[in-house]
Amino acid sequence: MTLSDASPRTHDALEVLHRVFGYDSFRGEQQQIIEHVAGGGDALVLMPTGGGKSLCYQIPALVRGGTGVVVSPLIALMQDQVDALTALGVRAGFLNSTQGFDERRTVEQLFLAGELDLLYLAPERLRTEGTQRLLDQGEVSLFAIDEAHCVAQWGHDFRPDYLALSMLHERWPKVPRIALTATATPATHAEISSRLGLGEARHFVASFDRPNIQYRIAAKNNPQKQLLELIRSEHEGDAGVVYCLSRASVEKTAAFLVEQGIDAVAYHAGMDAAARAANQSRFLREDGIVVVATIAFGMGIDKPDVRFVAHLDLPKSVEGYYQETGRAGRDGEPATAWLAYGLQDVVQQRKLIEGSEGDEAHRRSQSAHLDAMLALCETVECRRVRLLAYFGQESGPCGNCDTCLTPAESWDGTVAAQKLLSAVWRLARERRQKFGAGQIIDILQGKKTAKVIQFDHDQLSVFGVGADLGTAEWRGVVRQLLALGLLAVEGEYGTLVLTEASGEVLGGRRSVPLRKEKAPAQPRKESGARSGSGKAGRVPVDLPSGAVPVFEALRAWRAATAREQGVPAYVVFHDATLREIATRLPGSVEELSTVNGVGEAKLAKYGEGILEALADTRAAAAATAPAAPADPPPHEEEPPPVPEDLDPPWDDWE
Ligand code: ADP
Ligand code: ZN
Q: What separation in Å is there between the alpha carbon of 384 and the centre of ligand 2?
């Protein structure tokens, strides 16, 4: 569609896109969504992280008269969201519990005077009569319900306050609503639609694929060391998020990384609020910080240049995994999602479910979530195909996940499974004993350990029948049998017991193809300039080598500017924008204005600064040739042993 034959609304939306945001064109279904909402329609938008959801409500709010009210659970991030909009020249404010009376009054006055384009509200605030009266007195252009999956009761981020949002339509029937989320299985999608009364709304469902994210799931042996290797070999100087199950393992992992000279900070709900906020703010504001966190961290973190997300423990569900890994690479550039997974994870998660509060139905649903996650870990097919199938979307092998890059081999594990299951059976039957995986494997391998001798286990007929497999392989067998439901764990010590399905294997009625245990995954093969970036941060892959020093200089300028203004670096400009500037080397303000991501307000604010920084690098380049940076010193120290504590994962929100 060209500008001349566009409807007035399309014209307005495009004009705002160019002038305010500095972008050339809409992405995906943005234009249809924006037109629909700007025209007064309700919408439910399912779009992956980084898909561009914010523009879907920000532009309609700017095109329609009045203030767009954004409901968001992310109190800690409202200030940053408002700062980012202010930097674009958009009039934005927020109301939440962190504010004093005067500050709140000021925002309320601005709203009543019609001087706000966007107003961010926490859901609990919207429930109060005072806030509802306030909204009645001003002019609301639309309601945007961000993180809409929070309304889904069996989802993983349920917020009771979201349930009350069904009243929006009753109280303000004429105001369009747009609900947005980056995570929704077909079931969650249906629940959002019914709970928010969006059955009549238009539903926009984008592909959930994140092609720039490389999904990898590795066998866990020494997770801290494996993590360190990942960072050193592929993500030196990059910003990343490392997820751990417990608070204690968060602390230990962060300390370990710091010892190794990596800029790492910890984040979990047990820390005091000020320390937590300070660490989050460092991660957002500075380049190349690694945050080690429980799942309490991350919702709404819209830092675009997170280059890797690593899980040192198994996530509880595919939805959680998808959402957490989705925080990598919002800018569309290559990013890694890496998960270390082992037998202990399965045992641990099963135990957590067994010991969890809630009724049988709740436990069953948690079990089903875990089973889906285990199936993703154990698959010999493309990870992405599995992941997308979970969200109800079909696709073909992606070529950018570990199983596509180094296909997993399978082997016939039927006999091994029979040996293992019969060892469990004999112990139960002949000795009335139950043991964990370690002892069973020692028996199979014929190891005369103190514990084997103590219990006379060398007298069992299965003693030594499994000497043909190594310990890692046996652990792989146990893990996969657990994942397949052919074996179960029980009780505090995670002892192994048979399931109903075990009988089919023991009776020879079912064969058991297993995935071969792989050597540690190969690092990503890079195509572009990548070397020598060191601590300054990695170089984007598609930057011509001549532009690298300019890009680095622009980053330094951006860091200084962001510090001076107290905003995150990406609020000044994104990497993609700096890269385009470094490649095109604009010589004038007009030329600079045609760069993607340079809108009116930023041009006025930073245009001169950018041109000066460019002139400086030209002068410096003329004077010196860049020297090759030295290699970082090798690190050979053994990391401390893997922490074994079992703090629950459900850190609370404030
Ligand atoms: P989401 O909320 O869906 O995760 P965002 O709204 O944060 O995604 O957008 C992701 C990134 O893409 C942001 O950096 C945003 O500025 C950028 N973006 C969004 N729409 C466009 C567009 N039409 N053209 C260029 N960049 C865009
Ligand atoms: Zn794949």
A: 5
Residue 612, Cβ density class (10 Å: 0-12 exposed, 13-18 middle, ≥19 buried): exposed
- d(CA 590, CA 574) in angstroms, rounded, equals 19
Distance 237 CA to ligand 1 centre (A): 24
Grade residue 152 by pLDDT with cuts at 50, 70 and 90: confident
Instruction: Give the mutation target among 21, 58, 571, 578 for probing the ligand 1 site: most ligand atoms within 8 A of CB.
Output: 21
Is residue 294 very low, low, confident or very high in pLDDT (cuts 50, 70, 90)?
very high
Domains, the chain, in order of start with CATH, read 10-205 (3.40.50.300), 213-405 (3.40.50.300), 410-515 (1.10.10.10), 539-624 (1.10.150.80)
- The arithmetic mean of pLDDT across residues 245-251, rounded, is 94
DSSP-derived secondary structure for 296-360 = TS-TT---TTEEEEEESS--S-HHHHHHHHTTS-TTSS-EEEEEEE-HHHHHHHHHHHHT-SS-H
What is the C-alpha separation between 593 and 583, in angstroms, rounded? 15
Task: Identify which ligand lies nearest to the alpha carbon of 383.
Answer: 2
Q: Does the pTM exceed 0.70?
A: yes
Cβ of 327 below 6 Å from ligand 1: no
Give the closest residue (by CA) to ligand 1 atom 9.
52
Widest CA span in the chain: 88
- 3-state DSSP assignment of residue 628: coil
Q: Kindly state if the Cβ of 503 falls inside 6 Å of ligand 1.
A: no
Checking if the pLDDT of 531 tops 60, the result is: no
Q: Using the CB atoms, write b or e for 10-37: b if 16+ within 10 Å.
A: bebbbebbbebbbbeebeebbbebbbbb
**In whole angstroms, what is the distance from residue 165 CA to residue 174 CA?**
15
434 lines ligand 1 (CB under 6 A): no
pLDDT in tens, 464-479: 999 999 998 999 999 8
